[in-house]
């Protein structure tokens, strides 16, 4: 394949991906803001919010598959010129997001008992429940926002997604400052104030996305909310069967990292702190291939709807090459600036800081090593979602993360004598296995000929 044929795909994928990457980074910045500002309020509230936000995130990931999966469906329907399918699939994704929010609400409302059963201290469990009893009302707006993000991105307006997400950062910061500490004449609500700030921010972002999804020239013809309450059982079932495996796949990956966090804690607080810094740096870097994956889903989905096999192949190659390029950039940064970056997270006057920085520098080598594998597996998932293949990839991902990644990490760290680096080698093994299996799944399917099938009629 010549570069001349691939160049337009590289340009188009990058143009679509950059706003999506920016929106992912901005969304992560909102979460970091919550954690930092609650940390100023107290140690127990900070511990509780770390636990509570992790719990919310896992439940959110479980329900996110409908909003993520519908992205490829919309792109395929647009390629066919089927406005009805776009409207029905998006509407049913919004329905399923609402149902998911209702189903998980009791878990968040009575989360205190769950946290106590998991061995948390009573004061931390109480603060965690206080946070989640507010944030339970944010689940539906957050998932609606994800679905509307997919709708607008598939229409070629990811810039609106970026605008809405970035706008949420200063709003969330100001609300946190007012509601956590009681400034600007507001009551001092502490942990609940942080949750209320996030709730208000998410509702505001959802409102803006609804406005854009109904008023933009590209979106108006779809009349997204026309007869919104009319049931569509066939489409509902199709989007459910497409989206649930995506949610389970994402929970499986999050679970692998969570399990690694727990095992890393067995080596002591300094090691866990270093691991947390290295892992957060890896998470920030991951936003780049994640945005590329979203763009690949849209482009592959569009060519899938047209039945343009050669263009599907080129769109896939473009995503892979861009992911490799950005992974190499990240690896270079990690290997050359690890100590300087780690120092930003730590108090220079703390006598433990030099030792933790040294630990971060050692672990970040492994974080650099799995950048390529992590990028490849998420790009493969993006290509497979573009052709609406999610169930077998879910199985492949669960096998990779839970039967390869976690057990190998435990063995290498606890039995083979590698210590903390062994857990990172386990992550590398799980992600590499997923990358290989998912890539093989896509390209074998491509060789046999993907058969486009409508999700909604």
TrEMBL record:
* Chain segments annotated as coiled-coil in the UniProt record: none
What is a single molecular function from GO for this protein?
hydrolase activity
The transmembrane residues are: 52-80, 92-119, 131-154, 161-184, 190-214, 235-257, 277-296, 317-335, 355-373, 394-412, 424-443
- Principal location: membrane
One Pfam family hit: MatE
Q: Entry's CDD domains?
A: MATE_NorM_like (cd13131)
An example of a Gene Ontology BP annotation on this entry?
A: monoatomic ion transport
Q: Name one GO cellular component term.
A: plasma membrane
Q: Which UniProt keywords apply?
A: Antiport, Cell membrane, Hydrolase, Ion transport, Membrane, Transmembrane, Transmembrane helix, Transport
> Could you tell me the membrane topology recorded for this protein?
Multi-pass membrane protein
PANTHER family assigned? FMN_FAD EXPORTER YEEO-RELATED, MULTIDRUG RESISTANCE PROTEIN NORM-RELATED
Q: What is this protein called?
A: Multidrug-efflux transporter
Look up and give the organism this protein is from. Answer: Paracoccus aminophilus JCM 7686
